[in-house]
Design a protein that fits this description.
The complex is a heterodimer of chains A (about 325) and B (about 375).
Chain A lengths: L23 H13 L1 E8 L6 H9 L5 H4 L14 E9 L2 E9 L14 H19 L14 E7 L7 H10 L5 E6 L6 H17 L14 H13 L2 E2 L6 E4 L2 E8 L2 E4 L8 H11 L1 H38 L1
Parallel strand pairs in A: 1-3, 1-4, 4-5, 5-6
Antiparallel strand pairs in A: 2-3, 7-8, 8-9
Chain B lengths: L1 H6 L13 H12 L1 E8 L6 H9 L12 H5 L6 E9 L2 E9 L14 H19 L13 E6 L8 H10 L5 E5 L7 H17 L16 H12 L3 E2 L6 E4 L2 E8 L2 E4 L8 H11 L1 H31 L16 H33 L1
Parallel strand pairs in B: 1-3, 1-4, 4-5, 5-6
Antiparallel strand pairs in B: 2-3, 7-8, 8-9
Helix pairs in contact in B: 9-10
The chains are: A alpha/beta (about 325), B alpha/beta (about 375).
InterPro entries (chain B): G_SEPTIN_dom, P-loop_NTPase, Septin
Family (chain B): Belongs to the TRAFAC class TrmE-Era-EngA-EngB-Septin-like GTPase superfamily. Septin GTPase family.
Pfam families (chain B): Septin
Chain lengths: ~325, ~375
């Protein structure tokens, strides 16, 4: 037999004599994932009344928001930013997902909102810290519970102008430690031209302030990814409308908002970009969001933390040397 | 007048004719023209400029540049005035719009209403000085007659900044709260928000502008309209700078993929009601309340402060404290006299020359 593939080092599929069954691994993975289920943690940030709870409910087609779960929920503005999370297990076609929605009531609602992002930054870092601790144990759990924030959806009010100072401050800080997906909330007050202009201005502002939102260009894995993600990047932030009410349109039941001048169909791409957001977050990029969180944001945190503790160990050792 | 007097002798009460006074006032006012100062306040992007353009059917903000986020970070609250002279059917209106860019836009908005309250007080002070002065012929009334406050439709009611702002201003100016960009709300959401806002206005003791009560002798239809108007507050408004085609007509509106919002359609929003209140029915009342209540309160407070200050200094020169008047300048008076005499001489010379030319022609 001739020496084959010595230069390349790999044998391509068509070089095999018969069907080996390697691709069956995919099936095995799928089945395992289905059995084990998976976790997804999504944080929603924005001022009171921008439709965070409604959007989350609409995205996951269930009542998963904190508003829907508390028995005597009263909508009032809280004086400090207090993060609250609600978890649900939702199932679809045999696949189980433990969805955690982290809400940030009080953000941006006060007269003085200085540093209102700090509790959020702390929370994100705490989850990384927790995971790191579990990872460092000698006897590790087979599956470390993952409470890290995989995605932070930031709600921009549909003013039509530019980003506000609070938007810039928040996204600058959080963009470094978590994947931010900014959206234009309650976008049914913008006409199509106003929407395009607003998006352009926002993208300009993001660039001018060095804010990196998801999907970040540097994490594109290959040209195929790049093409796909470029298309998304040209379109963000998505202009979204949410609702849990259904109406009849042309004999079909659709999710929509009924006004005196027409019905805004949430899942109609000609009306708003809700489906684009849903596809991004759930149908196409959910695993990628988790990967970016684990491989990039978490690793950055880990490296920093370990260096810090090395430094403290170093300085403590040096102190000991001084004394002894 | 006299002919009326003679003709109506048979009536019980002799007709004197002063019932025509309103007509006389009307005629004089038309000649003189009106002025009205309207302030608009609220965060950026609430549609204030668009609404003002829609109300007065002008484009006051043609050359406006929107600040981007970087420029906004160090922005402070400014006061900008635009004045426009509008004339309709021979009636002149000098309209002044007072804009408050920067309000509520920063991260820290503590006391962001102070520049606005300072401005209103300054106008009162200016008027007080002018009113107390010697030459009162051409007093300029720059007092703010009405302040439209734009509440975002995105919230669940009043936010802390809304409450604080309105409380800082309600005793200085007529505050008319509006729900901005109402086209992102369904009818039931509008109702819920209005109820909530009305409730909170009462709960926080905010004194918004109240429409005067109907006279008891008005007809039922008028009373009904008045009642509907009052129940409609705060008005949910939509504005537009563009004209669109709707139901075969060209109207001011907003074109969406799901339908067309017509600004002047009363089932779409309360724009027409607001315009009627502001311009067609209550403009005069807004001015009256400003003069009779807000300004008088300011004046009384001012005098009280000055009196207490004087008694503190132990100098009671006159029972009615006066603001320091400009002292007549002797030098200026002399110069004026000189100029007058020179003008008289020049006029004389001109007359003589004209006479010469006239005589020359005859010859």
């Amino acid at each position: 037999m001739e020496e084959r593939g010595m230069e390349e080092g790999t044998i391509k599929g068509h070089d095999l004599f018969g069907y080996v069954g390697i691709e069956a691994v995919l099936d095995q993975m799928r089945r395992k994932t289905m059995k084990a289920g998976f976790e997804f943690n999504i944080m929603v940030v924005g001022q009171s009344g921008l439709g965070k709870s409604t959007l989350v409910n609409t995205l996951f087609k269930s009542k998963v928001s904190r508003k829907s779960c508390s028995p005597n929920y009263e909508e009032k503005i809280s004086k400090t930013v207090k993060l609250q999370s609600v978890s649900h297990v939702i199932e679809e076609k045999g696949v189980k997902m433990k969805l955690t929605v982290i809400d940030t009531p009080g953000f941006g609602d006060q007269i003085n909102n200085e540093n209102c992002w700090e509790p959020i930054v702390s929370y994100v870092n705490e989850q990384y810290e927790r995971y790191l601790k579990e990872e460092l144990y000698v006897n590790r759990k087979p599956r470390i519970p993952d409470t890290r924030v995989h995605c932070c959806v930031y709600f921009l009010p549909a003013t039509g102008h530019w980003l506000r100072p609070i938007d810039v401050e928040f996204m600058k800080r959080l963009g470094k430690i978590v994947s931010i997906v900014p959206i234009i909330a309650k976008a049914d007050t913008l006409t199509m031209e106003e929407r395009q202009e607003f998006k352009q201005r926002i993208r300009q502002d993001l660039k001018a302030n060095g804010i990196r939102v998801y999907p970040q260009t540097e994490y594109d894995e290959d040209p195929e990814d790049r093409i796909l993600n470029d298309k998304i990047r040209e379109n963000i932030p998505f202009a979204v409308v949410g609702t849990d009410k259904e109406h009849q349109v042309n004999g079909n039941k659709v999710l929509g908002r009924k006004t005196k001048w027409g019905i805004i169909e949430v899942e109609n791409v000609a009306h708003c970009e809700f489906t684009n957001l849903r596809d991004l977050l759930i149908r196409s990029h959910l695993q990628d969001l988790k990967d970016v969180t684990h491989n990039i944001h978490y690793e950055t945190f880990r490296v920093r933390r370990l260096n810090e503790s090395n430094l403290t160990k170093e300085s403590e050792r040096k102190k000991e040397e001084l004394f002894f | 007048l006299f002919s009326h007097c003679v003709w109506k002798k048979h009536s019980e009460k002799q007709y004197v004719g002063f019932a025509t006074l309103p007509n006389q006032v009307h005629r004089k006012s038309v000649k003189k023209g009106f002025d009205f100062t309207l302030m608009v306040a609220g965060e950026s992007g609430m549609g204030k400029s668009t609404l003002v353009n829609s109300l007065f059917l002008t484009d006051l903000y043609k050359d406006r540049k929107l600040l981007n986020a970087e420029e906004r970070i160090n922005q402070t609250v400014e006061i900008i005035k635009h004045t426009v002279d509008i004339e309709e059917k021979g009636v002149k209106l000098k309209l002044t719009i007072v804009d408050t860019p920067g309000f509520g836009d920063a991260v820290n908005n503590n006391e962001c209403w102070k520049p606005i309250t300072d401005y209103i007080d300054q106008q009162f002070e200016q008027y007080f000085r002018d009113e107390s002065g010697l030459n009162r012929k051409n007093i300029q009334d720059n007092r703010v007659h009405c302040c439209l406050y734009f509440i975002p439709p995105f919230g669940h009611g009043l936010r802390p900044v809304d409450v604080e702002f309105m409380k800082a201003l309600h005793e200085k100016v007529n505050v008319v709260p509006l729900i901005a960009k109402a086209d992102c709300l369904t009818p039931s959401e509008i109702k819920k928000l209005k109820d909530r806002v009305r409730d909170e206005i009462e709960r926080f003791g905010i004194k918004v502008y109240q429409f005067p009560e109907c006279d008891s002798d008005e007809d039922e239809e008028f009373k009904q309209l008045d009642k509907e108007l009052k129940e409609c507050c705060p008005f949910a408004v939509i504005g537009s700078n563009t004209v669109v085609e709707a139901r075969g007509q060209r109207v001011r509106g907003r074109l969406y993929p799901w339908g067309i919002v017509e600004v002047e359609n009363q089932s779409h929003c309360d724009f027409v009601k607001l315009r009627n209140i502001l311009i067609r029915s209550h403009m005069h009342d807004l001015k009256d309340v400003t003069c009779d209540m807000h300004y008088e309160n300011y004046r009384a407070q001012c005098i009280q402060d000055m009196t207490s200050k004087l008694t503190q200094d132990n100098r009671m020169e006159s029972p009615i404290p006066m603001l320091p008047l400009p002292t007549p300048d002797v030098e200026t008076d002399r110069l004026i006299k000189m100029k007058d005499e020179e003008l008289a001489r020049m006029q004389d010379m001109l007359n003589k020359m004209q006479q010469q030319i006239h005589d020359g022609k005859d010859q």
